[in-house]
Model the fold of this input.
Amino acid sequence: MENQANKTTARIEVRDLTMAYGSFVIQRDLGFTVNSGDIFIVMGGSGCGKSTLLRHLVGLKEPAKGKVFFDKVSFWDSEPAGKNAIMRRFGVLYQSGALWSSMTLAENVALPLAEYTRLSPSQINELVSLKLALVGLAGFEEFYPSEISGGMCKRAGLARAMALDPDILFFDEPSAGLDPISARRLDELILELRDSLGATVVVVTHELASIFAIGNNSVFLDAETRTMTAAGDPKKLLAESSDPKIRSFLTRGEQ
Done:
């Protein structure tokens, strides 16, 4: 019920966004809203610019044109201190999990806490254990990434992304490289965390099972026209869209 109540609150607004590398335009004229409590899917075929859009949203690449607003504050028009304050509210899970192989899971999760807070070592250890327990990794604090499965590494990466209690989580292809069972468990975990933490989630993925299992809002990027061709609930797009590219993308494997 809480998510329904928050649904009209815009957490992220993208207006007239053009992404480019030099003179080469990746996508143009993007405009969409991510509401509070959404699990928002960035979808489209290979090479359409999904991960590039994520880089623009998390502050790693400035748009060629257009604006990105977080709670009505224009990110790229903000002073450096303002940008940093906004980015402190982000948690990011990269495609590889991006764990430091030379550090234990506890040390990986503790890294942002040691860097950005004034907590004591004992307080950090307590928080690290809590975050790992939230993702089902209680008791694995002293394991190294090489000693656990790919799905567990993704969950450890998620624990680190949540270390600073962000209210916006960004995931880049979270299910990439996982078997179907591990991918489904990760989807269930994302839903649980959204509901328990009240976070807003943006997920880049091309995995149909994940798109329909967790997504309630989305944008579809088309590589050929280099712009968005649809936005909204993926299930509704599947039921109502007459665009052959969108229908083909959302019905893969059904033929």
Q: What stands out?
A: The two ends are 37 Å apart (CA to CA). The first strand starts at residue 10 and ends at 21. The chain has ten helices and ten strands. Residues 180-197 form the longest helix (18 residues).
